[in-house]
Description:
Radius of gyration: 26 Å
Shape: globular
Number of helices: 21
Strand content: 5-15%
Low-confidence stretches: 94-98
Amino acid sequence: MDIIGFPSIGANLELKTLIESYRTNRIDINEFVDKISRLRESIFKYQENLYFVVVNDFSLCDSMFDLSNMLGIIPKEYKDMDHLEQYFAIVGDGDDLKHDNIARWFNTKYYYAIPILSEDNTYKVEPTKIVCDYMHASKMGYTPKISLIGFFTYFSLAKTKQNIDKNQFFYKVKNAYLELVKSVSILNDKVKIEFSEPIFTQDIDIDFNEVKDFYNTISSYGVRAVVTTFFGASNKLTKVLCDSEIEGIGLDFVYGEDNIDSLQYIAKSGKKLYAGVIDGLNIWAINVDSALMQLERISSVVPKDLIYLRPSCSLLHIPITTENESKDSIIPTWLSFAKEKIAELELLNSIFKHGVVDKNRKEYDEQRQKFNAHQYSTIIHNYPIKYKLSKTSVDEVQKIIDSKLASICLKKNEKLTNYSESILNIFLQYNNDEISKEMCINILSKTIRSFMEIMQGIDEAFIFEGLSFMQIAEFIAMQLNGIFVTQNAFIQSYGINYIKPLIIYGDIDVKNLNIATLANMIKNILKGACNIKLLNQDALINYSFLRNDISTSKIYDQLSLYLYEEIKLLESYNIFDIDIYSC
């Protein structure tokens, strides 16, 4: 049992803090390197009971960018810089990145730096990062496994400038990639490298012979190669890989149920199967009995001693641990973040290999209780909302929402941001019964009038102006049943940027004084116009982990009904300046 990757960001945003401290000269290079090393050690610690610890998954930015750096695919204006200076110059501050420089990593909340291929690239291999990570883990007494984005995924996601044919760079990138693998193959007699090829689950044109020859070349270096696919089924490529010389194949049985059809080829080939049976993209506690049934089905075709358990994909896409969440809510007890996924993996592996025995019985019972407590909770279902939806025309509701959609970006203004954050904090205090209604109106009045004096010429009130989409999503969620706002569930989105996703756990309806009420209070204080910004259903879903007991379309409909009722209430207060954003 092992994992494909682990979050780099740190349970308390340590990575972000360290990078910001280094770049603002609050710590020097030596302290930065030392603390980054300790952060990496803490990540190894989470994996100490697994067969391998993953190396080269840790990144200051993202693994696609790291691979570009290692392959010499670097824009020419950065070539003569010192390594760290070059790294941060290319990465930038995250916020300054143009959207055409980054792209979403498949169906996740994570973004990567798009490789740009050109004649200016050196294609000179630099394996230092992998070597240092490998030696670091070995020195600590762990057995390392190198994680690398596969060549075919890397090349497929790369782009060129000015409509240049990308295929003219195919062999340059391929040869550099093979040289990189060859250079790290000497780290050990049998270096284990896992090549992540999610592109194999996508509907794209790939030369099967090229794939087979490529991985046969890698195997000829003495590498214990595992090729892993995820985010779907990869039956055609799996069959090709079964005929190659690689040691093992990793398959996603959570989001690629059809991978079950490839088992006969794996069994015939005698290769190791790395079975992804724990959901690496979502945050709910595993149904251990269901996972065991799936494993029994798999092991009825592939011999048990060739099956190695793991999550369906890298754990990079979920927060690190539930330990830092509120103990006042029942919701965190239903969740499983990266640390908890590893514990689930250990339990599942123990039962799969030995059955339910004295050694694992307590953990097995606790895991079942954890799952059942969620599934049968009375707070998940809201039958009046279900009934109201059944009597609602979703198309008519959507027309109202679409009529408010805004195409412009949110304004970035420090004064507006500070003002909006102050307003929200006052309202949250009121919602949490920390201040009375009279006190709330009093403080709101002073805050708004003070802002109007500073921002001369503005004659209308703003709600959410200057805030990020994430801040708006979080405040909306605080007014609703069915959505849990985490405290420390950070996930890296790109570089030092992060989001703190919402968790949609049940049926959605308003639980507190809604946003329309806040807008009306502010409008009455000003005795004038009020502008409000909201997020549409897609944006709220993009900032959330979703419940897994109903379809996404049903969650979407519930959010539609909420937005529709919010709009109608705002309009009843004569507030018509409503902008709804998608992201």
